[in-house]
Amino acid sequence: MTPQPRTPLSLGLLVFGLLSAIAISVAIWKPLPTSEASQSSDAQKGLPQNHEVYERPALRAYAKALADQGDAEERALRQALGDLQTRGATPQQKRRLILRSALASLRAEAPHMRSLPVRGYDAIMNGVADGLTQLQDTGSHWCRATTLATLTRKNEGVLLSTIIDDMAQSDAAYDWALSWVTDILELGSQARARPVRHGPRTVADEAVVQDFGRQIGLERWEVALSIAAFAQAEGRSYRAMKQALAAIDVCELGQTLEALSDRVPEAVRGRVMAELGPEIFYGNTPYVLYLLQGYFFIG
Fold it and tell me: Residue 15 is part of which domain span?
């Protein structure tokens, strides 16, 4: 039986930053439908390989990685984009379709996330940290915990649609998202060809992660204090929680988790990420949050 989370979904999203949002998105977004029409040749459909929507390097790399997983998904994407273009869609509408495709493609990689080498897990975490740094450098409202909490209370679909809309408007965010998903697709291919077995996590692993967590909490005391203040305010009153949320920088939190991951010994990191990775990409958010609460004393 899947354990139930001990804290609200909004807190889990805050602490895990964008990774938990991605976990939800994988559960929501479905692959584009394939059909006989999408299986036909590019020449017949008037959609050459260098179709204008593929001119951006990050998109070309994503389309190639998608095609390497099997032609059907890439052809379906190209067909859907061609249909949008025929209807006079805006560039942002095309980007939204592409981003939904990218998020949906992650789910197929879920079974292989337990078999990556440790450097693969590091690449995923580093990619998240890069994206959060980009948001922080631009003063993005996504770094404010109140933004995620407000949207999550409304509806998980609203949160993700809003994230996708924002990414579609920004060249830098759009390229980052596609590059990050492309890296994961390529890592999944490597795991299929050369799987790495990490073994189950142990009680000692959890203690090691918690010990390093305490150390980094002392170094990044402002982050630790903001989380502690929220934990104390939770359940007292909406006003108290809102005030505590205003002090939380989600981007700084995500970077702190990435820094923690870098410090944990490689063997421990491999076992922890081998357990977390599949659940994140399956979209099993409650179980992801349950694991994180155990590792990081959340709640």
Answer: 9-296
Whether the predicted model's global pTM rises above the 0.90 cut: no
Tokens of 223: 């982050």
Among candidate residues 97, 34, 44, 45, the one with its CA nearest the CA of residue 69:
34
- For the stretch 243-296, pLDDT in tens is 777 777 888 888 888 888 888 899 999 999 999 888 888 877 777 777 776 665
What is the C-alpha to C-alpha distance for residues 113 and 22, in angstroms, rounded to an integer? 14
Q: Which helix or strand (DSSP H or E) is residue 79 part of?
A: helix 71-86
Q: Is 297 left (phi over 0), alpha (psi -120 to 50) or beta?
A: left
In a domain, 1, yes or no: no
Buried b (16+ CB within 10 A) or exposed e, 11-25: bbbbbbbbbbbbbbb
- Position 77 in a domain: yes
Give which of 75, 74, 249, 59 is closest to 168, Cα–Cα.
Answer: 59
Which residues lie closer than 8 Å to 30 by C-beta, 6 or more apart?
104
| SS3 state of residue 249 | strand
